[in-house]
Design goal:
Helix content of chain A: over 70%
Oligomer: heterodimer
Strand content of chain A: under 5%
Largest sheet of chain B: 6 strands, mixed
CATH superfamily of one domain in chain B: P-loop containing nucleotide triphosphate hydrolases
Number of helices of chain A: 13
Order of helices and strands of chain B: HHEEEHEEEHHHHEHEHEEHH
Strand content of chain B: 15-25%
Bound molecules: adenosine-5'-diphosphate, magnesium ion
CATH architecture of one domain in chain B: 3-Layer(aba) Sandwich
CATH topology of one domain in chain B: Rossmann fold
Structural class of chain B: alpha/beta
Chain lengths: 345, 300
């Protein structure tokens, strides 16, 4: 096989690996705050960032560690409601501490619902994580304490301030969100490129072999659930505090869990970049579809038709991806870049 | 197929470690000849039996392995060879019998402590981590030496970096020893079968085990690859003094390579001794070698 070709390609790719994130950070902190409209921020960037982070978290668990979960939405809810309560009940708690405590709460719940992974795998594990989904939604609705006795369980985002600066404006919320996402993504990037991350992959690829060489399989799985749930929990805080501003338990339903799973399937399993590509796709796709539908069909394309066609196209795309490109948009992206690279050289 | 559910269930049960020192028992004192044989036995199986449903995969099998020898276990397909290795490595739990590893006696070997007991193994069907590079696959063989937590890994704290560096050095040595330099950074799943087998040997060797269990390391290889692999197995013993249990179903492969050969047939040990003895044993010829060659009208 083309060993030499790969070797030759290694250096520039390594360089590009750093150049691309650097460019994206420049865009995130330079271009977007300066030029983005508030519609772009509120309707596209904020949901994109929160979903990207949730997908990064789920990808850690499912893509890297091989543990299929349908509980993401529950862990987002735990994060959101925990942050709301910490903020409400602890006087003067800094926002960063609130978010970290929310993440830790989600991690705790994640570990509890990760325990079945010690016995179950694949489809059966996914079904058992559904328990998290139903339990969390039930508990948040049943016990008024979680929503400070709001009759319909709705919580509203508090004022967001960091070091005396208010972040309640659209651009403030954007900066909070993008900084959180970049920070946690960097942490995950280092994790997956460390010995711990390789333990995740070992457990995913061959649990028996992992065990006999001394990978602590049980601890590794629970750690994956904990870190993944922490990140998804913080994504839930972003979802509730920076994007929607008011949320109810029903907003964190099974549909959202599936949406995050679809993001990592479309974007690419075991790929951090894939989580972002998949989230971008999921957020932009309905907008694109509604514009296209309105353009082609005019008034016939109402919201009901939009919703229906969106589900059909998305379902079809997932099947196509699973069959034709199991490594998702991330792999497509790589192939495209290689083709462009080979043409220009 | 090492039943995953079986493995997972087995994992939960506490290992029974009785810690009997081999050769130190007072019973043997009256039998000096046996004592000396046991004194340098690094692995002893006695009375091992295991059944799957109604199938008796092994019945009353004993095996004694001396430190530093290459001990072959041969037998036709289905004879129980893999079951034996799975029992030694704790993936299967024997219904009867004891396993003494380097002085510690078990009725169930704790698979999760295998590496720390100084035992490494390869699998009959490749059991590599397809999503990792060759180098990372090999490095995973030393995971039992790591102590740093995930926080230390994320923050790249000194202990994590020290461990990474120490392991990288061992990995480089192993890569050089097994001539894997050219493919070290490839994804392991992209390698041809023969090389994957070699990577699996590397992952086991890098752990610097006292006992190495090889389940058909040459199966499915070309003649050249087999000769190469045999060379590596011998070199591993000669240079590092590792004790090797070599499973093969092809008797020819092990003759020149092993010090002693045990023969299994239908879960029973039918012969045990030097290669030449075993080859001449009528029971072996009848049960095993004979099956192939008797059809040509002649035994050995
Ligand atoms: N996990 C298992 N479940 C059921 N039967 C098994 C299992 N492992 C081995 N066996 C049975 O035990 C017998 C010996 O198998 P094995 O140890 O793999 O033989 P060998 O390695 O000598 O070819 C076979 O009849 C096989 O079907
Ligand atoms: Mg076998």
């Amino acid at each position: 096989m083309a060993v030499q070709a790969l070797d030759a390609a290694r250096l520039p790719i390594h360089w590009q690996k750093l150049a691309l994130p650097a460019a994206l950070i420049a865009v995130a902190y330079g271009l977007i705050p300066a030029y983005a409209s508030s519609y772009l921020v509120e309707a596209i960037l904020l949901p994109f960032l929160a979903l990207s982070l949730a997908a990064v978290g789920l990808n850690l668990l499912t893509g890297y560690c091989g543990q299929l979960s349908l509980g993401s939405s529950a862990f987002m809810a735990v994060g959101a409601f925990a942050a709301y309560n910490f903020n409400l009940r602890v006087e003067g708690l800094p926002l960063a501490a609130t978010m970290i405590l929310a993440g830790i709460s989600a991690a705790g719940i994640g570990v509890v619902f990760g325990l079945p992974s010690l016995r179950l795998r694949g489809f059966y594990l996914a079904v058992s994580t559904l328990a998290a989904q139903f339990f969390v939604q039930w508990a948040l609705t049943k016990f008024g304490w979680f929503s400070n006795d709001n009759p319909s369980g709705v919580i509203s985002a508090p004022h967001l301030t960091v070091a005396g600066f208010s972040l309640d404006s659209a651009s403030g919320r954007y900066l909070l969100s993008v900084t959180t996402v970049i920070g946690l993504t960097a942490v995950v990037w280092r994790l997956v490129n460390s010995a711990t991350g390789r333990n995740f992959i070992a457990v995913r690829d061959n649990e028996t072999a992992a065990r006999v060489i001394g990978v602590p399989v049980l601890r590794t799985k629970l750690l994956a659930f904990a870190i993944s749930s922490f990140i998804i929990g913080v994504a839930g805080v972003l979802w509730a505090f920076t994007y929607l501003r008011t949320v109810e338990p029903a907003g964190f339903n099974l549909d959202r869990s599936f949406q995050i799973l679809f993001i990592i399937i479309i974007g690419g399993l075991a790929s951090i970049r894939g989580a972002f590509l998949g989230a971008a796709f999921i957020v932009v796709f309905p907008l694109f579809l509604s514009r296209l539908g309105a353009f082609v069909f005019g008034g016939l394309f109402d919201s009901g038709v939009l919703d229906m066609s969106q589900r059909i196209v998305l379902g079809a795309l997932i099947i196509i991806f699973l069959i034709a490109e199991p490594n998702g948009l991330s792999a497509l992206f790589d192939r495209l870049r290689r083709r462009i690279g080979s043409r220009s050289s | 197929m090492i039943g995953a559910s079986l493995g997972a269930a087995a994992y939960e049960r506490a290992p029974e470690i009785s810690g009997i020192l081999a050769g130190a028992g007072s019973v043997e004192d009256t039998r000096p000849a046996l004592l000396s044989a046991k004194a340098d036995a690094i692995l002893t199986l006695s009375g091992i039996g295991i059944a799957f449903g109604g199938v008796k995969a092994l019945s009353d099998v004993g095996l004694e392995v001396k430190s530093g020898e290459i001990r072959a276990v041969i037998g036709p397909n289905g004879a129980g060879k893999s079951s034996l290795i799975n029992i030694i490595s704790g993936l299967y739990h024997a219904d009867h019998g004891k396993i003494a590893i380097d002085g510690q006696s078990f009725s169930r070997v704790p698979a999760s402590h295998l590496a720390r007991l100084g035992v490494a193994r390869t699998f009959q069907n490749l059991a590599l981590f397809g999503g990792l590079s060759v180098r990372d696959n090999i490095a995973s063989g030393r995971v039992h030496t790591r102590r740093a937590s995930f926080v230390e890994h994320i923050a790249r704290l000194p202990r994590a970096r020290r461990e990474d560096a120490a392991i990288a050095e061992k990995v480089d040595q192993t890569i050089a020893f097994l001539h894997l330099e050219a493919v070290a950074d490839r994804l392991v799943a992209t390698l041809p079968y023969g090389l994957q087998k070699r990577v699996e040997l590397a992952r086991a060797l890098v752990a610097e085990p006292k006992i190495l269990l090889l389940d058909e390391p040459m199966a499915g290889m070309t003649a050249t690859e087999k000769a190469e692999m045999a060379g590596f197995v011998r070199a591993a013993r000669d240079r590092h003094g590792v004790t090797i249990i070599l499973i093969e179903h092809d008797i020819g492969v092990v003759m020149g390579l092993s010090d002693r050969v045990a023969v299994l047939d239908y879960g029973r040990k039918i012969a045990d001794g030097a290669p030449a003895e075993v080859r001449a044993d009528p029971a072996v010829i009848r049960a095993y070698i004979g099956t192939a060659e008797a059809e040509d009208g002649e035994g050995i």
